[in-house]
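Morning run. Coffee first, then this:
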Amino acid sequence: MKSSNPNDIFVTGFNTPQWNTTLSFGNPQIARNTGFNITWRWQDAFYWQSPLVNGTLPAFSTLDAQVNYRFQKQHTVIKLGGTDLLNHRYLQYAGGPTLSAIYYVAITVDGLLE
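And here it is:
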């Protein structure tokens, strides 16, 4: 007789690496109205389990960076940055898409509704 409890059929793993680390270095005002941040992330290889697919995900690292400039009178900050600047494709879960570099420009206006 089959059980109707899905836990009797498949017990998924934690799907997390044993080791990961993040190192970040930055300064919100390295020069007048200008700041930056640099982040390096590393994740160890680990075994992924799910009802869809099982498999070992390789270790990966990424380098992210951002530069920002504040326009004081306009109460505005412009940010220019990117994630995975070295454009190394990696997986976050088995059966998923590969991820790679994303670049962005952001504009933030403070106190718009004051």
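The chain is about 5% helix and 50% strand. Good start to the day.
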